[in-house]
Every structure is written in C-alpha cells, then in structure tokens.
Design brief:
The complex is a heterodimer of chains A (170) and B (293).
Chain A: H1 3-15, H2 17-28, H3 45-56, H4 63-77, H5 83-97, H6 99-103, H7 107-132, H8 140-167
Chain B: H1 2-39, H2 43-81, H3 83-118, E1 127-135, E2 144-147, E3 160-162, E4 167-174, E5 179-183, E6 190-195, E7 200-205, E8 213-215, E9 228-231, E10 243-250, E11 255-259, E12 268-273, H4 277-284, H5 288-292
Antiparallel strand pairs in B: 1-2, 1-12, 2-5, 3-4, 3-12, 4-5, 6-7, 6-9, 7-8, 9-10, 10-11
The chains are: A mainly alpha (170), B alpha+beta (293).
Chain lengths: 170, 293
C-alpha cells in the first residue's frame, strides 16, 4: 500500500544480504557431503565472507554481525563456544589495521593478504584449542583446512562481488 | 554553516571511533567470558547450543536430501560396474564368515553355560535407535556430528553411538529432535578400554586425527599390532565389550589405534541405550553422587 514502506523493507532485505548469505553458507557447509575426509578440511566460509564484506561493505558487516555469525558457527559445529568469535574479532582487527593499504590493492595482493591473515587465524585457533583442551590437537587437518580456504577464496570473492554488483547497487 | 558542519563532524568522528574501538573491546571480553562459561560446563551454554541445533537440524535434513539422492545414484552405478568382481569377493567372504558363525555359536553356548555356573546376571539387550547424521564436523578442530533423533525419540546423554562395525562415539548433548555425538577421535574423548585377549587396561584418547592413541596402559602389558580394542565398561560410561578397533602402529612414544568405524562414510549411527544413564549422572555431577543414593 505505502510504497515507502515496501521500499524500506526492500532496502532492509538488501542490506541484510551479506549477513544472511554468510549464515546460509555456514549452515550449508556443515551438511555432510558423503565425500570421505572432506568434512575435516572443508573451507572456512566465515573467514572468506568476513574478509570480503569487512573490506568492501563494512557498514553491512558490522563487528556485532561478525560476532553473531561466529557464535552461531561455534554452536553448530560443536567447538568450544567463544573460540570462533574471539579469533574472528582479532581477524577483523588485523584486517581493519591494513584497510588503507588493501582497498586499492590488486587481486593477487588481496589473496596473499588473505592467505597470511587466515594462516594466522588458524594458527592462533590451534594454540587456543591446545591451551584449553586436553592433549595436542592434530595439526595436519588445520593446515589442509587453511589451504582449502585459501584455494576457494577467489571463487567466493567473485560470487560476493557479483552479489554486491547486482543486489547492493547504490 | 560549513564551519559548523565541520565542527560537528570533528566532534563525532573521534566519538564514533571510540565507540567502534570499545565495541571491539566489549565483544572480545564477551567472547572470552563465553569460553570460560563453556569450559566450566555451564548448563546455560548447553541449553543454548541444543536449542540452536534443534532449530537448524530440520533445515539441514532438507539440505541433506539432494546429497543423499546423488550419492545413492552414484553408489548404485558403481555397484553395477563392480557387480561381478564384488560377487566373487562376497562369496569368498561368506564362506569365511560361515566358519566364524559356527565358532561363534559354539562359544556363545559355552559362554552361556559358564555364566550360568557363575550365576552372572544375563547381559541386557539395549534399546536401539537408528539416526541419520545431518551435520558434519565443522572443520579441523572438532570431531562431532549431529544426528536427527533427540529426547523425543528416547535418546539420552551418554548413549553409545555405533556404526555397523564398531563404536563411533558417545551422545554428548541432547535436544528435542537432535543430538550431538562426540566421536572417539575428538580431542576431548577419553574411553576406558581393554586391549587384546590379555584384557590389559588403557584409556583411548582422541587427538582429532583418524587414529586415536592408547594412554595409561597397564604396566608390563604385552601389546601387539592387530590386538583388538574394546570398551572395558570401567567408570560406567559404556557397557563392557563394545568393539572399537585394532592396534595399528606401535612406537616408543605412542600406540595408535585404527577404529573399525569408517569416518569417511558416517551416514547413520545406531544409538544404543544400556540403561547406564544413572552411572553417568553420578560421573557428570560431583555432588549428585550423594543424591542418587
């Protein structure tokens, strides 16, 4: 009836897009694909998505949203609650520290930067789990998960760019 | 006018920056508080976790359907291709198994008569629920899965989760129609076991790798590669005698076990209830032990 009302709903739905898509992908990535040994090294879609949106549309991926996404991922994956949010917040802090350098950077520079930041995130998470849980966690799947995450980064950043161009035009 | 706007933005920018910075600080403190709450086994954390998993598991079940369909189709096609060679292999295995069946029947009779002589309580048949795995391990730091049965289906904390071949893990959290199973390869998994026919005691400890290791093995125990590992039932967490796997490698520093469960194909789990919940209640709560009596 009131066009401004629907426009507002439309605008809201569009601006909730990065959060909703990340949430959906997080859930979908937990679906068992029945491919042996994939689940342990399945790429961390959260890292890719948070990296992309924090860089290009920080207004649509505020840190409370990052916290919320990591919180839900922790609840669903069964890892010790709180570890994911802590790592992801530090990841965002480090990312924001380099914002000036990264905004105008070439794709390969972004990719290398993502590799460094995600490696640090995985390393820090391993150390945290080592300190909090009994025994020494196996490091091999952690390295592989980092590599698969870095490997699929270009594909997902292309998808996110497509979403940004089509749905979030200003 | 311009000057005025400039003045306002000059005031708000540091305030905004400060708010942004303090939001980081607050959320990091919240995250650390969450870790402490989760680590101390807070009941609220478990409730929130089961509620969220309960809410999402129907969605996962739907998302699972096309995967099941595709993988079943591929499997059927593969079966057709390998039909002849598989048939021969199965025939050979069948013969072998028949021999074992005769041996097992003989041992079963012997076991029953010996138990009768000793007046041992007959072993109870468990209540079995078969559940589908709807959520996989979410990454490289944890080894647990979510199944689509919960308290409404009679699932309780501590039940043994079996694959067709052996023990896979234990039920750790139960929602209304979903439950989380911690696999025996998880970093936090500790299971009292017997090793080999000598029944030496040890603890099977997971480290997130596919082959958990044996800790605190009885002194002077003679362990060989190929020795069978099964639950000892000590501590009351599991019944005695559930098959787990075999000793797979022996070094000076560690004894690795290869579980019978196939981690690559965890599609269904058999949740077995041996009525041990009471024992676990005592184990889980320090003060509860007195109350149970």
């Amino acid at each position: 009836m009131n066009p401004t009302f629907w426009q507002r709903i439309d605008g809201l739905a569009r601006s909730a897009c990065p959060f909703t898509i990340t949430l959906l992908l997080t859930v979908l990535f937990l679906v068992p694909l029945r491919i042996p040994n994939l689940a342990e090294v399945v790429p961390s879609i959260l890292l890719i998505s948070v990296f992309y949106w924090t860089l290009y549309r920080p207004d649509l991926m505020p840190i409370w949203a990052v916290f919320g996404l990591a919180f839900i991922h922790d609840l669903l994956s069964g890892i010790l609650l709180g570890v994911g949010p802590l790592i992801l917040l530090l990841f965002c802090l480090a990312l924001n520290g380099q914002r000036k350098f990264l905004v105008g950077a070439s794709f390969s520079a972004l990719w290398i930067n993502f590799f460094i930041l995600s490696s640090l995130a995985f390393l820090f998470q391993w150390v945290l789990i080592y300190l909090l849980e009994p025994g020494i966690p196996d490091y091999r799947p952690v390295i592989f998960q980092n590599l698969t995450t870095v490997a699929v980064y270009p594909a997902f950043s292309w998808i996110f760019a497509l979403i940004q161009r089509t749905l979030l035009k200003e | 006018m311009n000057k005025r706007i400039g003045a306002i933005s000059h005031v708000t920018t540091p305030v905004q920056a400060w708010l942004h910075g303090s939001a980081y600080a607050v959320l990091i403190v919240v995250a650390i508080a969450l870790i402490i709450l989760a680590k101390t086994g807070n009941v609220g954390v478990e409730r929130v976790r089961t509620a969220v998993v309960d809410g999402v598991s129907p969605l996962m079940e739907i998302a699972n359907r096309p995967v099941v369909m595709i993988s079943d189709t591929i499997e059927t096609a593969q079966n057709y291709v390998a039909l002849k060679s598989e048939n021969e292999e199965l025939r050979r295995q069948n013969e072998n198994l028949r021999r074992w069946q005769i041996a097992a029947a003989k041992l079963q009779g012997e076991n029953a008569s010996l138990r009768g002589m000793l007046n041992l309580e007959p072993t109870r048949a468990p209540n079995i629920t078969t559940a589908m795995v709807v959520a996989d391990q979410g990454g490289s730091f944890v080894r647990s899965v979510v199944v689509n049965s919960g308290s409404l289906d009679g699932i309780t904390k501590g039940q043994a989760a079996m694959t067709g071949l052996g023990l896979a893990g234990r039920v750790a959290e139960v929602g209304r129609h979903s439950a989380r199973v911690i696999l025996l390869t998880d970093l936090s998994s500790r299971i009292p076991v017997f090793v080999g026919s000598s029944r030496s005691r040890a603890i099977l400890a997971g480290d997130n790798s596919p082959s958990p290791s044996l800790l605190y093995l009885d002194e002077g125990a003679d362990v060989k590669v190929g020795d069978a590992i099964y639950t000892s039932g000590q501590g009351g967490g599991f019944v005695s005698g559930l098959p787990i796997g075999v000793v797979h490698s022996l070094t000076d520093v560690s004894i690795k076990v290869r579980p019978y469960a196939d981690w690559g194909h965890l599609e269904f789990l058999r949740l077995e209830d041996y009525g041990l919940k009471q024992n676990l209640d005592i184990l889980y709560s320090d003060s509860g032990a007195e109350r149970q009596k």
